[in-house]
Amino acid sequence: xxxxxxxxxPAAPKRLFGHPPGLTVLFLTQMWAEFSYxxxxxxxxYYMTSELxxxxxxxxxxxxxxxxxxxxxxxxxxxxxxxxxxxxRSVVIGGLLMMLGHFAMAFPPFLFPALALVALGxxxxxxxxxxxxxxxxxxxxPRKAHAFSAYYMGINLGGFLAPLVCGxxxxxxxxxxxxxAAGIGMFVGLVIYLGFxxxxxxxxxxxxxxxxxxxPVPVDxxxxxxxxVLVTVVILFRIAYEQxxxxxxxxxxxxxxxxxxxxxxxxxxxxxxxxxPALIILLTPLLIGYWTRRGQKGTAAVLLRRMSLGCVIAxxxxxxxxxxxxxxxxxxxxxxxxxxxxxxGLLTMGELLVIPVGLTLVNLLSPAGFAAxxxxxxxxxxxxxxxxxxxxxxxxxxxxxxxxxxxxxxSVLLAAGLLRVMGTLEHRRE
Length: 430
What we know:
Blueprint: H1 21-51, H2 56-85, H3 87-104, H4 111-135, H5 143-172, H6 175-195, H7 205-211, H8 221-241, H9 247-255, E1 256-257, E2 259-260, E3 265-266, H10 275-294, H11 300-331, E4 335-336, H12 337-352, H13 355-365, H14 371-378, H15 380-393, H16 401-429
Parallel strand pairs: 1-4
Antiparallel strand pairs: 2-3
Helix pairs in contact: 1-2, 1-3, 1-4, 1-5, 1-6, 2-3, 2-4, 2-14, 2-15, 3-4, 3-6, 4-14, 5-6, 5-10, 5-13, 8-15, 8-16, 10-12, 11-12, 11-13, 11-16, 13-14
């Protein structure tokens, strides 16, 4: 289904690596925003259990609710951007709120107000920024799918740096140093975004559409139905995936041998959170190159099949943790870090076939005038997945680890089956 993206920039002669220079601006803006977000996330569970004295169950539940709120707010943020603020102002206001929230995290009494600021700011920031990526290209431009993969690599470059910088500062020098570094990262992102506005798509707005003689495009009921089903299925993927920063973080701290050189050196637990984004940075160019060589058109059916394969691979990552839990249960000793490395390797390969591909599909489905709203709806999967992952994580310790990870494997395998069925039906329609 082809749609017209309002606010799409006209073709420009300047290109950077074959793409409009605006993609680099959005890449760097999102990278620093994610540096700030993942900097807080890398520290949050450790901060609550170690510094604030919260129980593991309470900390996991707070982590899940906060993560859920941060990705439920984009639905409303997308509506606000489409109807009132416009994309640019929404991004700027959202970034400012997140920056203030990260700085407030340095003060223990402000824990919940700080998390609320970050969650609200994220809602205003994310949908319009992602929409601007798609607006750099015509709808039939094959580079669009590659652009979303490159944009997602920017997200993960920030996620890679955050545990190494914010995590190290928080664990070694003090929590306020880590949270402060996260706030500075968000500030840098805003400076880049505002400094290169001339390279980005303008806000279409209703008055712009009217001036060009275009009536607002009606929402396609079939596109809405597909989006609702897609979000529902991705929730199943997210339930397992979101454990990587929750229960998996605790597994790394408590059940993983992190020592080197016969115990002379211990790797900080937060550093393991950098494995996933590091692999995304390494693998994304290879994946883009593979798709480019195949020259396969990114139809809805093709994208759904890619997502199904990604869920199968993610299921394998959870089965690795099932095996690690069995070994840990038999020996009663921390297991090798290679288990976690293999888990993150498979999870990352699965993620690359689910999340950026899903972003491309949502952009494909979105009509003009509702692009940010549709993109915000996509993040509901992250919201519900995070909340359910937090609820599930609160039972860590009550449920045997092997069964716990087995439930995660079943969840993503079910998602794979449903996506495959959707892809088959869509292929018949096409």
